[in-house]
Amino acid sequence: MYDGRGLQPGGSFVVRRKVTSGEPRWVFRTNRKATDLDADAETAYVAYDDGEIVALDLHGGTVRWRRQLAVAGVPAIPTALTVAGPGRLLIGTSDGRILDCSAG
């Protein structure tokens, strides 16, 4: 995950590179700031400062799903994200909570 300074104001992008050459396999760009990223064997999960979580296919970079983070219907801002096991994400929020969420 890279800060997009110089590319697009407030933007960021995620790059998956080939291990042997370092050249990009795919790039996923957005016009907002990413706050954290983690991955399992199949999916990269990206948290954004507007409350969205995006799941990217690790092999091709396509969007598997995207969700707005909310707790009891109230929007929440993710500041940290960790894959905690198969189908499970731990998400830290700007108000100090740690959420145990389904990854799907």
Structure, explained:
By secondary structure, this protein is an all-beta fold. The chain has strands at residues 2-3, 12-17, 24-30, 34-39, 43-48, 52-57, 63-68, 70-71, 74-75, 78-85, 88-93, 98-102. The strands form four sheets. It has a four-stranded antiparallel sheet with strand order 4-5-6-7, with no helix packed on it. The radius of gyration is 14 Å and the shape is globular. It starts with a strand and ends with a strand. The model has no long low-confidence stretch (mean pLDDT 89).
Measured as a percent range, the helix fraction is under 10%
- Enumerate the strands of the largest sheet in spatial order, edge to edge or round the barrel: 4-5-6-7
Spell the H/E element sequence: EEEEEEEEEEEE
Name the average pLDDT: 89
Secondary structure class reads mainly beta
Unreliable stretches, pLDDT < 50, 5 or more residues?
A: none
**Alpha plus pi helix count:** 0
Gross morphology? globular
Through-space gap between termini:
21 Å
Compute the number of strand runs.
12
Oligomer: single chain
Strand content: over 45%
Taking the sheet with the most strands, its summary is: 4 strands, antiparallel
Radius of gyration, in angstroms, nearest whole number: 14 Å
Topology diagram in text:
Layout: E1 2-3, E2 12-17, E3 24-30, E4 34-39, E5 43-48, E6 52-57, E7 63-68, E8 70-71, E9 74-75, E10 78-85, E11 88-93, E12 98-102
Antiparallel strand pairs: 1-2, 2-3, 4-5, 5-6, 6-7, 8-9, 10-11, 11-12
